[in-house]
Amino acid sequence: MALIIVVVFLSLSSGQIVVDPLKALRKAMADFMAGDLDARAPLSDVPELRRLAVDFNRMAMSLQTL
Q1: Which of 1, 21, 63 shows the shortest CA–CA distance to 38?
Q2: Is the distance from CB of 21 to CB of 46 less than 8 angstroms?
Q3: Which of 16, 27, 34, 41 could form an SS bridge with 53, CB 3.0 to 4.6 Å?
Q4: What is the DSSP string of 14-43?
């Protein structure tokens, strides 16, 4: 029973590690599309999400300079 509780806890906490950065990226995108050209995505500790945020931030910076 304790093992099941630990597995559920780890699943939920690791899910937040992925979900929170995705929510932040989505907010940055929505802010940018609404006209806040200074909006940038925070960098994540998850490598794939970090690359996605870096790519978004580069795109936003390029569009901001136009």
Answers
A1: 63
A2: yes
A3: 41
A4: HHHHHHHHHHHHHHHHHHHHTT-TT--PPP
Name the one residue in this structure whose structure tokens are 């093992």: 3
Tally of CA atoms within 13 A in the half-sphere of 6 that contains its CB: 3
Give residue 65's Cα distance to chain centre: 23
CB 64 within 8 A of CB 37: yes
Low-confidence stretches of the chain (pLDDT < 70) are 6-14
Q: What are phi and psi of 43, to 5 degrees?
A: -80, 140
Q: At what angle do helices 2-33 and 47-65 cross, to 10 degrees?
A: 10
> Whole-model pTM above 0.85?
no
